[in-house]
Design goal:
This is MacS family sensor histidine kinase. Pfam families: DUF5931, HATPase_c. The protein is of the alpha+beta class and 367 residues long. 62% of the residues lie in helices and 9% in strands. Helix 5 runs antiparallel to helix 6, helix 5 runs parallel beside helix 7 and helix 11 runs antiparallel to helix 13.
Length: 367
Amino acid sequence: MGIEGPFWRAIAVFRVASLVYAGILLIQHDGYARPALGWLVIGLMALWTAASIFLYSVDAVRGWPLLVIDMLVTVACLLASPYAQGRFQFAQGVMPLPATWVAAPVLAWAVYGGRRLGAVGAAIVAAADVWLRVRTPGAPVYLNGAVLLFLAGVVVGHVARLAKQAEERMQRAIEMEAAQRERDRLSRGIHDSVLQVLALVQRRGQEIGGEAAELGRLAGEQEAALRDLISMRPAPSGDLRTLLTRYGSATVTVSTPATPIVLPPATAEEVAAAVGAALDNVRTHVGRDARAWVFAETVDDTVIVSVRDEGDGIPDGRLQQAERDGRLGVAQSIKGRITDLGGTVTYVTGPGEGTEVEIRIPAGESA
């Protein structure tokens, strides 16, 4: 039940207290036209109070069918008031037969669906009460109860929604803390084994020279990348900056702002994948040792990511020819991904000037 548990228990207490209050009002007033019918309605209210308290406590049952039935039972008891009270119902200061018990489904709707659903529940109950009074000639129409129902539904719904959001944030914080503890545990093991081996390979490779020196250089790059990986703290979900930083190496320089570049998680993953595809193209067509630069920034409501290399550039028509030949790396891995996200991809290249891939993605909710 989580954070909602106290709300449902409070509503259960409210139902019982309101039921007792309705019974006391029926005992005090002896001017009802049909007291027996009044007690029959009170009995129905008591049965539904017991049933609803149990049903709302079961997570699998709590949902729209129960909410609708709760509202129908309440409105039925409210509409039975004129038949039990007769003309006495419209005397000054006399409440309908269910009295404050009619607010219970409004509170239930508010806790379940927030302030908007609470307002809808209040409107239904208030409309039934006003209809009873309007249909009787000469009966006074009071809106005080409708206003109080509306305020109760909106306020309780708002508080319940805030409580749910706070619970979700706390759960995410707990998960991040657990992930960090696991990361720290793995970091200690990696530091004592893998990093030491990579450092030894790098040092010995440089001492031996030749092909071993190349292996040593690669080992040094992997050691640096692994140290960066295990030292990173959990980042906000959808932080593009963190995803791009993982591409950094001895040949790839990644420049990002100091603050997170937050996008919807799926969007951030797709943009990072497109950048990875662009870097793969650099290694394939320019060389594994070619230098590349990744730059990311946010301008107004647009995230701009560029990937630049030091190659000889792309000849005119080369991309179109590759697409016609069925080589769809650029068309699908880069342009296809970004186009599906509502963004654009621009290639800036020239003979001997290298190639720059510029990716633009909307940073707002449209992303």
